[in-house]
């Protein structure tokens, strides 16, 4: 069976002490024979600290955003080349919180994905519909539009992406998509990838949105759910470890 991938998105949480405690707890509790990939997407300011803390462990380093520009007069931005220097493996792009609060467009997200790929960083392309869009029957159209922008832009690199389906109404709300609802959208995304690459099965499709220790196993049992992108539950070692255990 394909290895699952569990990535924690810390969002704007953490601190020097809290990060050290959290990662020590995760490292201590990881199964000796880990059967899934594990990553943490941390605030960029902690990259050096977390790089050292995950050294010699199976935990991959990730970030929550990357600039679409190579370098120059882009105040506040962090380039893919800078991230590469810290050993970053994954960069979230197009998280709904960035689309919503920072006005990121599908085109921006596509450029960010390309910028990451150019430096050997795997983009985790986040897609998902709002509650209003779901209720209007637009779920498929929305996620397909969001993913299409990236597929068109990255060309033959499609098989190097990770895609995360995160229904906006499920993020931080405690309302998880049912395994059937999530699987239905994942199947749509898989088919869209398959139309673009013969290696669509290789692309990990993560589910995100109130995934926790109690619901992880059922979600991860779906045929097209290859892992999880975990917000709140990634901030407590015990909870994150239980999700990892469900992915074994
Ligand atoms: O946005 C998410 C991960 O990127 C999901 O967040 P929660 O797990 O807190 O709902």
TrEMBL record:
It catalyses: D-glyceraldehyde 3-phosphate = dihydroxyacetone phosphate. It comes from the Bacteria. Transmembrane segments: none annotated. Its EC number is 5.3.1.1. PROSITE patterns: TIM_1 (PS00171), TIM_2 (PS51440). The keyword Cytoplasm applies. The active site is at residues 95, 166. GO terms for molecular function: triose-phosphate isomerase activity. Pfam families: TIM (PF00121). GO terms for cellular component: cytosol. Pathway: Carbohydrate biosynthesis; gluconeogenesis; Carbohydrate metabolism; erythritol degradation; Carbohydrate degradation; glycolysis; D-glyceraldehyde 3-phosphate from glycerone phosphate: step 1/1. One of its GO terms (biological process) is glyceraldehyde-3-phosphate biosynthetic process. Coiled coil: none annotated. It is found in: Cytoplasm. Homodimer. Belongs to the triosephosphate isomerase family. This is Triosephosphate isomerase. The gene is tpiA.
């Amino acid at each position: 069976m394909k290895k699952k991938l569990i990535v924690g998105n810390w969002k704007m949480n953490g601190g020097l002490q809290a990060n050290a405690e959290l990662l020590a707890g995760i490292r201590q509790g990881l199964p000796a024979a880990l059967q899934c990939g594990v990553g943490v997407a941390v605030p960029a300011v902690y990259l050096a600290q977390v790089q050292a803390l995950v050294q010699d462990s199976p935990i991959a380093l990730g970030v929550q955003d990357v600039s679409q520009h190579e370098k120059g007069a882009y105040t506040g931005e962090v380039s893919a080349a800078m991230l590469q220097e810290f050993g970053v493996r994954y960069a979230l792009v197009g998280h709904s919180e960035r689309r919503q609060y920072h006005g990121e467009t599908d085109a921006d997200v596509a450029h960010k994905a390309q910028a990451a790929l150019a430096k050997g960083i795997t983009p985790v392309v986040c897609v998902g519909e709002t509650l209003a869009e779901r209720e209007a029957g637009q779920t498929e159209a929305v996620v397909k539009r969001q993913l299409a922008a990236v597929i068109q832009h990255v060309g033959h690199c499609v098989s190097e992406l990770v895609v995360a389906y995160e229904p906006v109404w499920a993020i931080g709300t405690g309302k998880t998509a049912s395994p059937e609802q999530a699987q239905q959208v994942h199947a749509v995304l898989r088919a869209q990838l398959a139309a673009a690459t013969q290696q669509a099965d290789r692309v990990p499709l993560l589910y995100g949105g109130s995934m926790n220790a109690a619901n992880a196993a059922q979600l991860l049992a779906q045929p097209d759910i290859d892992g999880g992108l975990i917000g709140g539950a990634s901030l407590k070692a015990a909870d994150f470890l239980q999700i990892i255990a469900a992915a074994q």
